[in-house]
Amino acid sequence: MGDIIFKARNIVETAKDITWTAHDGDTQLSAKGFMRKNGEAGEQLLRGAPPARAVTTKKVKKIIVNTPLAEGLDAGGGKRPGLQYGVAYEFEAVEFDGDVQPDDHATIKWGYKYQNEDGVADFDFNATGKKIWINISTLAVCGCDLTVYAYFSGRTAEAERTEWVHYRFRWFSLKDVTNEINNRVVANNPKLGAILIDQSNTPLCGMAIVFYLFAKTNPQAYSKASFDLHRKGEAEFGTFKLKPKDPVIYEMDPAAAKYPKLGGTPMPKIDWIDMVTLRNQENTFLNYTGEAGQEISGINYPDMVAPLLKNFLQFNDVKDSTNIGMNPTADSKQYLLEEIDAQHKAGYNIAMLIDADMLKDSPSYFAAADNPFSWRFHWIIYEGNYSVNIQNNTCSFSFWCWGNPVKLLTIKQKSFDTNIYGYIKAK
What we know:
alpha+beta, disordered N terminus
């Protein structure tokens, strides 16, 4: 390279539009604005002494998130802002080593890391630059801390930012959900187990008997599906996928006034998640979203329950023997109770469709013109112990429903005859 020559117009104490040219070489440097050398007083630029250039930074020092975060509960149950599944967030590298902006932002690389029950996921993004949009589109990261890196060459030696990624049901405490699930899979305890599944003040008795049988016959699968629903908002059992049609149910807050309660006691959290997810998935022309007071839109008819026993719970032998036109009649249906008991002894799970008046030992009579929505359809699980007292004209059998222990029901035969709409058997 040849000599360096400094050129400027009207060289005085300060000069504009300075250029440095290398003769017999390929280097040309330029600067716009005022150039000063050796202090504020300045002096003419001398041949062979160009000012030193700034050193380009090679480290990112700080990352921020420009997109607002959402409130929710963290793993400990405390309120915490965090990222949500399905939302894109803009991350930006804002501070650099020496407080100097890099010459080329395109050289900033990005990566991320999180850890769940399956281990550590650690990847680089394909995109580069000062800003990057990150779409939370991986269900596996829900309920985890997500660490995002921005760096030039050393990922762990430069900037990182960790943000919580909410559970899909972000207002449902993991501690409460865990306790409820664990209590529902305890075997051989008359106060714990599947009997705790509770529809509360909702019309979800059909969904309740589905999850009762799920927890009773396959507790490990029930537990996994329930945990997955809380964390990821969807779950799989065999070929069946549990996933709501309407994402609005993810926004339910158990502390809200619209959350179902019975006698002032809120519905158990995991039962709401499980039952409302499944019922919302089955929505047709009415949109049930699990709010208190949604009685008609949440009804569970036999043509909904029977397919779930087959397709969801994967019972091979399912037969629907219900008939909602069976009543009102006072004809003896003792034969039906004997049939139910025989099927139960043969190993079938029996879901009985009744009018709730049966549980109060009260006969029911409805005129044909009555509104069918006023019929108090209710699903219960038959649990054996059938007997009949001809002298008193009563019958007895054990049943389960509504989060209670299995009970022995003794009623007048007429209370059974006028309140039974048949049964579904499954095994």
